[in-house]
Design a protein that fits this description.
Layout (H helix, E strand, L loop, with lengths): L11 H17 L3 E3 L8 E7 L6 H11 L4 E6 L8 H6 L2 E4 L4 H14 L3 E5 L14 H9 L3 E7 L4 E8 L5 H12 L14
Parallel strand pairs: 1-7, 2-5, 2-6, 3-4, 3-5
Antiparallel strand pairs: 6-7
Helix pairs in contact: 1-2, 4-5
């Protein structure tokens, strides 16, 4: 996991311009952005949910710029093909081969442990298609790296995005997942028929 490479978030002038652009777009689209990270949280796994549309990525980036977050996000290898690979990685993207998901959990946890600051965005659904069950890779990454899980969200029905509660994993995944899914039960993706927080 190449967590030390420079991204758009490390480029001050461009970062300021993109933050301004993001705030303008969100305002024009009628979106409200709320939430913040506790001052002592320098490393975390951010849940990206609901994930039902290609629009989720730009809106996630808009919200990240608005909240001054420096994020890295995982995406399937297919969206990193030339000529867009460089741009996607510059935007914080990390290509993932689904066949190596198990190794990705271990590698991601190690990268977070080694980094001074790292906010990793992971979709528990892992796909824009209808997902009946959440994948738990994000939980195992956070628990292994001993960092909190932050419940980030995009609610298209209310046009509201941002950061929700911070959860320190207990190791009891069933209990913790109930808390997480309870937060997301009223959140609506762009295609609400594809999201199930249960």
């Amino acid at each position: 996991m190449q967590h030390y490479r420079r991204t758009v978030f490390d480029t001050p002038v461009v970062n300021i311009l993109l933050r301004t652009f993001s705030l303008i777009v969100l305002k024009l689209c009628g979106w409200k952005v709320t939430g913040s990270l506790p001052a002592d949280v320098k490393k975390a796994v951010l849940i990206a949910a609901p994930h039902t549309s290609n629009w989720d990525l730009p809106f996630t980036l808009f919200v990240a710029f608005a909240l001054r977050l420096k994020i890295y996000w995982m995406g399937k290898e297919e969206i990193f093909k030339p000529p867009f690979r460089g741009v996607m990685m510059w935007l914080g993207g990390i290509p993932v081969q689904r066949s190596a998901a198990g190794n990705m959990v271990a590698a991601s946890a190690e990268a977070i442990r080694e980094a001074h600051e790292l906010m990793l965005v992971v979709s528990p659904e892992g796909t824009r298609s209808k997902a009946l069950y959440w994948k738990t890779g994000f939980y195992h990454i956070a628990h292994s790296a001993e960092v909190p899980v932050v419940m980030a969200f995009l609610d298209y029905e209310r046009k509201h995005g941002g950061l929700g509660p911070v959860l320190h994993t207990s190791g009891d995944i069933e209990k913790d997942m109930l808390l997480i899914k309870d937060f997301y039960k009223d959140k609506r993706g762009k295609r609400r028929d594809l999201f199930h927080a249960d």
